[in-house]
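From: lab user (bench 3)
To: helpdesk
Subject: output format question, protein + zinc ion

Hello, I'm new to running complex predictions and I'm not sure whether the block I got back is the full result or only part of it. Here's what I submitted:
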Amino acid sequence: MRELIGHHEIIRGLQSGLHSGDLAHSSLFAGPSGIGKATVAHHYAQALLCTNPQNAGASQLGCQQCAACHKVELRCHADLQWVEKEEGKTRISVDQIRELTRFLSLTPMESNWKVAIVDDAAQMNAAAANALLKTLEEPPANSVVILVTCRPGVLLATIRSRCVKYYFHALSQEDFSHILRGQIDLADDQWETVRNYSEGDLGFALRFVREGQLTECQQLIQEMEQLMRAGRLGKLCEVAEYWSQAERFALAQFVMRQWITQKVRDCVTSGSRPQRVRAWLTVESFANEFFSLAETNNINKRLLLEGIFIKVLRISGAVL
Ligand SMILES: [Zn+2]
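Helpdesk reply: Thanks, we reran it on our side. This is the complete output you should expect:
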């Protein structure tokens, strides 16, 4: 079972609705990506469909033990419909929403509720959004729809206004580390890199580690730190050549942006001289501008990386 960590206020709000029986037909779970909105939606569905809700712990939704809770976990409960973008498609289609509407209109088979979760709701195309709006305007009895998204502003205002809104905030560092440590095993210095570079996005952090990007990320950070320490051109051209290759450039871009932003933050929090803060801010805007150019133009990526490295070296006091 996936653990429910953080988001205490939201959990309490959902529990209070469950206890009083005053449940909204439609809810909107909004907030940054990768912080556990869909996990809370899963647990809320468990609480609605659970056959032993009295056994749920004080900070839990659903008992997490009964057959219904297990079925929801496996997404195979007859009264739960999980809607997401189909593989190979770019949007959630109107046919998927029509199917959701049909499902909600049926009598519950194993519980008192029909529950539908749409994740990510902002991926609905216009026809799908309009079809969903009709369902939200006249919700079938005993139906609950949970919309999950990190981009609530993309949804129709008329859809948003029909929903009880739950705004999720980034997880605390402790909660973030606790969840990650339960899923991956890393050395201390790797934890720090993952924490700094994923900015609280759990989904990103897991992909980052599992897809082998963490090692490459640490390699580039080490090379940039070495360039700065050496304070001279040294291996600059070689490093730029390596990271400008097509298969590495996207990661290099991401890591360098984060690394530079971290330098700005470090300067501000350590009370560095204003000139130094300004110098790093200049590098940051220079890098952002260069990387934007790389997205739209067929620019020489090795020269681009060299340009940014040289800016960084200037800060380190190197004479070029
Ligand atoms: Zn249960």
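A quick orientation on your result: Residues 212-315 form one domain. Let us know if anything else is unclear.
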